[in-house]
Amino acid sequence: MSKHLIIACVALLMAMMAVPMAASTASSTISPSPEASRSRWSRTSAPNTVDDSQTPTDRQIAIGRAMWESGQVKKAETIFMEALNRSQDMSDKVNATNTLAEFYCAVGKLEKAVAAYSSLLASATVEGDTATLISIYSGLGATFSYNGQYVRAMKSYRTAEMMLETQPDTAALADILKGMAITLNAAGDVREALTLIRKARSITPESDLERITEILNVENRIEARMGDYETAYRSISEYSRLRRLLRDRQADDIINSYGNAETEETRFRLAAAEGMRQAISEEQDAERRMALTAAFVMCILLLVLVSTLAIIIRRTTIRREKENNLRQKMQDQERVLHIVSHDSTNQFNTLLGFADVLVQRASKNGGDDEIFAKHIYSSAQTLYQMMSNLLAWSMSQTQMRSKPTVLNVADGLEPVFCSMQIVAADKEIEVRNSIDKRTQAFCDPSHLVIIVRNLINNAIKFTRHGGLVEVTASSYGNKTMIVVTDNGIGMTPEMVERFNCDEMLTSTQGTEREKGNGIGLTICRDLAKTNGGNLIAEPRRKVGTSITLVLPARETTKR
User: Fold this and answer.
1) How far apart are CA 107 and CA 36, in angstroms?
2) What is the DSSP track for 146-173?
């Protein structure tokens, strides 16, 4: 969980750092100059200059163009949208829409450019405003033409041209013809484009210097493309003459507009400059606030990261301390078990030795002394068996490893048969050693003694007086099988199934109410697995039980 938290913090930190970078990149991107595309649109678009006849919408559009030219694209778009929303009459709406469409085309957003005309087209259609519809279709034609959709552009221009039949307007028709000529020239139909531009020139009065100058500019480019350089030269000469005349007229207008102070245009330009300065200041303030916010978020993320790492380190340290303490306790427990096992084994060996001597002496005299001596030896042997089982089980729980070696099974189990003879004598049970003298096994000798002693003791426990317990051993390939068989009361199929499924069996009383601790067979099974073997129980056909201990016959590379 802590790993995912750290990754999330780093991702969030990178995202916060990317925000101001993206904003800075977007604000510094400069789109194509508006001057390069304005000639495609109707002349209703607001110019950059200001005079007394301009409306507030025209002034706002002029501010937006100034920002556009200086690279303030986002600010320019916002101002153009405000100009459209604040327009009062239809003429202002048309101007603002044309300017916004021109802007969107220049920045490569055709869908928004077309959408700019949608609401205006719907309202003009409802009101039946033919003049506005003509302007809209002319603007759509310029939009499609700018983006290379010449068929749609010509369709829009033709629609506007047909509407002019009901409401003639020479200036609007000249603009439509000029737009159609630009579209056809771009599409490759140069001759038709030349015909249309010359028609636009013929219907435009010489007094309309600005419009006739724009028409001549388009005409000389079309003529040059056709290869008629002489005519193109004459057109460009006339264009230059009219441009000089137009500049002179504009200069006269500016000079005449001067009064005792500055002109309206100068005041407007100062106001636009102040607006730009204020906009830049606001943008810088926004960037500073964003930087402070990013720094604050970075501090919080850093604090969270440091806290998380501290918690992880603390938990890791505590876990390691607990593991070390537990390992030390297990080592201490194992050491204590070794000491107890060693000391108690010595004491019981002494006790069993004296008990054996007592039995031998009492057997010479017979009578009650012999019976009492045998009972003492049997009880000591049973107690020793229980204690050995408990110690063996405790050691197995501490994950003590076996120390296997190749041994002769008959020799290794000889002490077991000697100790079991006296225990079996109380019930007059014969313990028969039928082990092949050549049989060998690869296992821990002490573990083998514990397993077989428990199996024989268990068989004696559940065999009646006069019964038989037989131990056999033989090798088959890489396996050695030691089988302990009895003719006692046996095990039920349910008990056999539970034993073979590694389930722990509950302790039950023997044929003469002998008691046990219930872990003998469990210890045998665990020790068999520790030595790379297994313990399998199977009921005999008529009576008794057969338990097979399977062990490796020789050392293997992988146990």
Assistant:
1) 12
2) HTT-HHHHHHHHHHHHHHTTTS--HHHH
Q: For residues 169 and 61, give the distance between their C-alpha atoms in angstroms, rounded to a whole number.
A: 25
**Cα dihedral 484, 489, 491, 493 in deg (nearest 10):** 130
Q: Which of 71, 69, 64, 68 is nearest to 25 (CA)?
A: 71
3-state SS of 13-44? Answer: HHHHHHHHHHHHHHHHCCCCCHHHCHHHCCCC
d(CA 143, CA 137): 10
pLDDT, tens digit (0-9, with 9 covering 90-100), for 181-222: 898 888 888 889 888 888 888 888 877 878 888 888 888 888
List pLDDT tens digits, range 290-328: 889 989 999 999 999 999 999 999 999 999 999 988 888
| Distance of alpha carbon 351 from alpha carbon 374, whole angstroms | 13
Q: How many residues does the chain have?
A: 559
Nearest to 280 by CA among 127, 539, 71, 515: 71
Structure tokens at 210: 């600005």
Q: Is pTM, for the whole model, over 0.90?
A: no
Radius of gyration for the chain, computed over Cα atoms and rounded to the nearest angstrom: 55
Q: How far apart are CA 508 and CA 462, in angstroms?
A: 9
Q: At what angle do helices 264-365 and 2-28 cross, to 10 degrees?
A: 170
In angstroms, the CA 278 to CA 285 distance is: 10
44, pLDDT greater than 50:
no
Torsion 165-168-170-174 (CA) sign = negative
* Angle (CA) 36 39 41, round 5°: 115
Q: Please report the DSSP string for 366-382 in residue order.
A: -HHHHHHHHHHHHHHHH
**DSSP line for 453-505:** HHHHHHHHHTS-TT-EEEEEEEEETTEEEEEEEE-SS---HHHHHHHHTTPPP
Give 69-116 as a DSSP string: HTT-HHHHHHHHHHHHHH--SHHHHHHHHHHHHHHHHHTT-HHHHHHH
